[in-house]
Design a protein that fits this description.
With about 150 residues, the protein is an alpha/beta fold. It has helices spanning about 20, 25-35, 50-60, 85-95, 130-145; strands spanning about 1-5, 40-45, 70-75, 100, 125. Strands 2-1-3-4-5 form a five-stranded parallel sheet, with helices on both faces. The radius of gyration is 14 Å and the shape is globular. The N and C termini lie close together (about 10 Å).
């Protein structure tokens, strides 16, 4: 199963930025742990601080069985979750299921972070489960595609 993991702005700083909120693991460490636990899953990982890149990658995953056989998208859109109507539109149009991931519990954060524009257009959301949320999202997609 091919899964596309997309991380939005500032998530290239995982392990360094606010470890008390986002943990001390880098994305490379998270991906390595997932590959060890789920060796049959082929992960495609992309990160960008630019909204248009995320939209382009979601659109590229669409089509018959998804581009390159992508069966699902794990999306941590970072701050764009709270602000981007354009990203919401891309997710809503996606032909492959998108699982929204937030490392922190956005419902307990600052008021401007408490609403995600993506939640109601995603197939599933995992909020506040730490970096383990990425693996949980993949496992959900495995069950969804069965």
């Amino acid at each position: 199963m091919r899964i596309l993991i997309l991380n939005g702005p500032n998530l290239n700083r995982l392990g360094l930025r606010k470890p008390e909120i986002y943990g001390s693991k880098t994305m490379a460490q998270i991906l390595l742990e997932i590959q060890r636990t789920l060796p049959d899953v082929h992960l495609i990982y992309k990160q960008s601080n630019h909204e248009g890149d995320l939209i382009d990658w979601i659109q590229e995953a669409n089509g018959e069985n998804g581009a390159n056989g992508v069966k699902g998208i794990v999306l941590n859109a970072g701050g764009y979750s709270h602000t981007s109507v354009a990203l919401r539109d891309a997710v809503e149009e996606s032909e492959v299921p998108v699982v929204e991931v937030h490392i922190s519990d956005i419902t307990k954060r600052e008021p401007f972070r408490q609403t995600s524009l993506l939640t109601d257009v995603c197939a599933h959301s995992i909020i506040g489960h730490g970096t383990e949320g990425y693996e949980e999202a993949i496992r959900w997609l495995q069950g969804f595609s069965v």
